[in-house]
Write a structure and sequence with these properties.
heterodimer; A: mainly alpha; eight-stranded mixed beta sheet; B: mainly alpha; 7 helices; Phosphatidylinositol-glycan biosynthesis class f protein-related (chain B); transferase (chain A); GPI ethanolamine phosphate transferase 3 (chain A)
Amino acid sequence: MMEMGDWWRRGKWRIMVMLTMLHIVGILIFTRGFLLTRTELPYYSNCSDVSESPCFTGQSNPYQNQSNSRCWTRPAVDRLVIIVLDALRFDFVAPSTFFKEPKPWMDKLQVLQKLASTKRSARIFKAIADPPTTSLQRLKGLTTGGLPTFIDVGNSFGAPAILEDNLIHQVDNGCIEHLLPSLYEEDWDVLIAHFLGVDHAGHILGVDSVPMIEKLEQYNEILDKVIEVLDNQSGPGGLHENTFLLVMGDHGQTINGDHGGGSAEEVETSVFAMSFKKPPPTMPSEFDTSSCEMDLDQKKTCISSFQQLDFAATVSALLGVPFPFGRCRPAVICCGQASDAGYLLFSIGRVSPELYTLGAGTWNLENNIEGNCPNQKEEEWMQNYCNVLCINSWQVKRYIDIYSASSVIGFSSEDLLHISDMYAQAEENWSCSSESLLLFKDESCYSSLPLKRKIDAYFKFLLNVAELARSKWTEFDLKMMGIGFVIILISLPIYFLAMMTKSVNGFSSLLFGDSEIFVKLVFALFMVVIRACSFLSNSYILEEGKVASFLLATTAMFKLRNSIKREKMLVEAIVFLLLITILRFTIEVGLSKQAATSLFMSTHSSWLVEIDPGHPVWIYMAEIIPILALIFLAYLLYIIMARSSCHSIWNSTIIVLSGKQGPLVALVTITGDFMSITVLHFFQKDLIMFPSTGYCIMRLGNIDRGSTDKVAGILTFDPLSVTQWSLLATCLFFVTGHWCAFDGLRYGAAFIGYDEFVLVRQAILLMIDTFGFSHIIPVFGLPFLVARQKLLGHTDQDGRLLLLQLSQMYLMYGLITAASVIATILCVIIQRRHLMVWGLFAPKFVFDVVGLILTDILICLAWFYYVGRREDGTQLTTLDHRD
Amino acid sequence: MVKASTTENPSQSVSPMQTFFIHLICGVGLAVGLWVAHNFYSISLISNPSRTLRLIWVTMCPLVILFYSCFRKNPEKCSYLKAVIRGVLALPIGALVNALGAIALGAPVGIQYFPKTVNWSLLMSLFTFVPAASVFGSSWEDWRRIFAHTKPNASVDYMICLPAHGAVIGAWFGAWPMPLDWERPWQEWPICVSYGAMAGYLITMVLSFVLVLPRGRQQHPKAD
């Protein structure tokens, strides 16, 4: 027995470390399969590549001589002005008649609507983005024509979110300042201006707000000016003779101003395209998929839609550069991430007919004016378009080939074969050039039939590739996910085994002997299982805070029942219940705050309606409560110190635990609390959150009192207390105003005390703010549950028992955390095709997984701190006994 | 620990027949309340929860108080009227406790929820507190035995203990569907909680009768 105990004492830290490693490995493997990643190719498209394509067989590239920088297709436009309005919803641009009911934010960009309805050279498009709809992702998708992966999402949360809130009105000033003068300059081919104002206004105040409408009206003015300048210069020989204007959003946003997910509101954005070339273009009606509607002035407005994926290819085709952007001279002005637009990659998009027409419809009309065919124009257009598609398809095929050759996780061979077949089919019969079409020429006009068939074949090929790519790059690697899951699952029996072995160790065979404890164990397990199962539904994940407080209140009632049974600590049990009630209301405040920004939650704060955040009472509360909290904490500290000093005759080992750890926990609490107070003070407008910090500390002192009511007589630890502790930790996460979404992170916390950005330091600060209350303090505070109990009078207990209890409690705590994370992972596996997977499940998964690893590491640290120290003491005592 | 083992014939002995009768009356009272609401006022728990709940508890209240008072403890010391008054007094107190419990667990608070919460907690009080108050009065030991230890001894203990626990546990389970996004009208507070409570109450009444049955057979020969 002694040897076994020794082995355990020496070995158990290894178990902790082993479990940590197991979790990390499992999570890494799982994440590799779950979060989508795609190999990026280091290749660039070149002008010379085009000679390899089958599109110009039998003749030299007719366009190569004309211009050096434009080579792939015949350039349709000379200059391109792209104005990106971040988070531009579709209904910002489209006339309100397209929607069921007009909303205040509609019809604000009237310049665009007027042009779209009066001019044939202007049109509004509905662009459909691929989720996740975050700016960086979308800009990358726009410029490269690729599909997004999840890993990038994380990168895009930093930059725009850190910008200060009150900068909505200034955020675009740089853009505005530089945009208009640039229009008069000659040294660019593509001008990109990126306006962030709408995105900001949305994030902070939502769509239905005054600043949003003001912002849109401001844009209306700017666009009016821009179009005026372009229009003035668009005469023959003018600077903008052949300029193409695109006003576009990179993604949409929900009514609450959120984006990132895959709901219709988020993926639907709009593109306004206008060509300043005269005369306006035409297009064969069979490719026109637009829907028309009368606008407010009873003019007909037509709107077509295309996939955002196709944008890059179309723009490249218009500019006549290698697909997508080749070496044109981009003039990227202003605003952060827009500089990414210079990156060049491969596109799998197809050239969108409508958008292409606007810019490219009519460039060689003048040459063929003598033709008297009725559909001459259409013919010309189709031929051009066919050519463009030919290069487009060839490029896509080449990309697929290179990708599957160079990437580890490529496409399956049958998929590749299928694609090759389709490509061959599209290629085989005719070339787009007019020579091969002579056969079909009747009289002076071409028959459009073969051309059309050919275009259809290309369409089919391109659409199939896009579909395949979508399914592949947004496909999960189930094998990896499975392996990762199993590895994490293995940790569960290890936890049990470790706990059981210790039970065998002589002291806690009582664990299953006592029916009382057994009931508690069953009850605790029941709670853990319920909580784990609740993760299977998105509704419960959204309301996780409420679920946790519901379960916590249930355990508190169970405790109350027990304390009535024993007629002990009745007051504590009732106070505990009351505190949980307060906790529950605080969580609701946090949830209503989340609902204000979240896309899935409807605001249903039941009792908050009448609270005005600006009310002076709240401001006073906000000032006073943290101070009170600190005073209370100081008092608590004083009590603990006083106690440990007056009982200095106790076993030295216990003093180590109670005396040393009490102040430590308090210190951690103070730091964490101060931290979050500062955060709240400077960065959170919602002052209601303040009181919660005060309550937390009170509860910290209180829960163990509530939980020890029963334990005192029993030697092993109380499983219910640990469960409560863990539930409380979950509640604290929500009480302090966090929630499991990336927009719930308080980036402001990263900059307390520092102005400049250092990644590691700021990440640590953010981590402390996010997980401070829910992970760090609970883990380090766990020994309170034992220490208090010891203070109550069992001074003659063997130190080793304490040690054993502590280790078991840590194992139990780890077990509970791991169990809920496993449930989350299982849920993510099951729900991976759910609509909200990126909006809800994936963030929850990331938060949980980070929390689990953090908890593991903290348990290891706490272990070394408490138990390592205690072991020295124990050995000393043992030696004493031997002597 | 088992100080309060009440073998000293505390209350009137209850035959299984009586148990069955009382449970039947309570169940029928519940049903009548729902039936009246549905047929005379053409409302249901979903369309108008607070009025329906009020109808139910008003129907059940006299039945529960009057019939449970017959089985009061120490009938020679405590008159029937006193037991009835105890039951009436316990109604609002029990409602308060139930309402506080529900709020601690997450029941919504607000002006628009106030009548619903009040009526619901009065009904819950009828399920839980009122029978116990009528029978035991202010005997703390008995309350503790029934609600904390859950150790019913006599038949009347079963009749109080089981339905009360059933109603509370049923209400607890009934709260589960509330956060789900099915957007059904019955997910509102306190509709599904009331359904859960009623279901739990009815089921445990049957259970209590089943458990009382063998005891009645044992007691009968003794009485002879």
